[in-house]
Amino acid sequence: MKGIVIMNARPNGEKFYRQSERIAGALCRLGAETEIVLNGSVPAIVGAKRPTEKKTADFAVYLDKDKYLGRILEGAGIRLFNRAAAVEVCDDKLLTCLAVAPYGLPFPDCIPAPLCYTPAAKADRKFLADVAERLTFPLIVKKSFGSFGNGVRLVHGMDELVRTDEEFLYEPHFYQRFVAESSGRDFRVIVIGGKVAAAMERRAKAGEFRSNAELGAECVKAEPPEEYLRLAERAAEVLNLDYCGVDLLEGKDGPLLCEVNSNAFFEAIERATGTDVAALYAEHILRTLRGR
């Protein structure tokens, strides 16, 4: 059995290589010949009479977010972990909310920002006033695409909301109700093959409302209540994910889904919990392929 681990064509840091090497190594130890390749070195072509390239591997661990290559590889008969459609939905934070909403999964209220294509446009103050009235201050302004807490702002008043909206104007973004009970703190839950594999609590450093490990948050092993774990597993099921990191907030009435990361880094949660996430993911991949 032959596999590939696909990285972005321009990896932004050593942690991207380390994650790929851990997964590829775990697969090789289980008997699956696996190599790491960058997007751009994978044969792919789209044409009316030749919609996909020939099959070059039995499976691919897809650590990129390129929605085009993923679909091309699936068209060639390569099983992706995660599937192309699941990666695409999770890459867009608001699209994730739209995907889970029909299933009744709880998450903070969101209002999409109208897309803007007009040069030198200004913020629509009337629209923003309505946003403020419906969500109340403080509220979150969040870019639809982004990682490691980038593009997420906590806004306390109208002038700040207008400035932030004008800064984000030409990028897809949305507004979200701020969950004060969970400010600077959340749970990151890793789900593999539909089951919780590990969980940690992330605690932001002083003065920071975002609890990303990349922003200096403290990460400690956690045992969230059962309803939190079931929500994480349900989110993975609804989004058809083989592997993911689910971020959960503590609302006053129970857990709330914050984000679902299809390519979640696992170094921090391995250190916090002692769980070999790479090995568990590799086992799931091969078990899935052999069960087909």
Question: If you had to describe this structure to a student in words, what would you say it looks like?
Answer:
- By secondary structure, the chain is an alpha+beta fold.
- The chain is 33% helix and 25% strand.
- The chain has nine helices and 13 strands.
- The protein has helices at 14-29, 67-75, 84-91, 93-100, 125-135, 158-168, 226-238, 267-273, 277-290; strands at residues 2-7, 33-38, 59-62, 79-81, 110-112, 139-143, 152-155, 173-177, 185-192, 195-203, 218-221, 243-251, 254-261.
- The strands form three sheets. The protein has a five-stranded antiparallel sheet. A four-stranded parallel sheet has the order 2-1-3-4, with helices on both faces.
- Strand 3 (59-62), helix 2 and strand 4 form a beta-alpha-beta unit.
- The chain is globular and about 60 Å long.
- The protein starts with a strand and ends with a helix.
- 38% of the residues are buried.
- The mean pLDDT is 94.
- Residues 97-286 form the ATP-grasp domain.
- This is RimK family alpha-L-glutamate ligase.
- Keywords: ATP-binding, Ligase, Metal-binding, Nucleotide-binding.
- GO terms for molecular function: ATP binding; ligase activity, forming carbon-nitrogen bonds; metal ion binding.
- It comes from Candidatus Scatosoma pullistercoris.
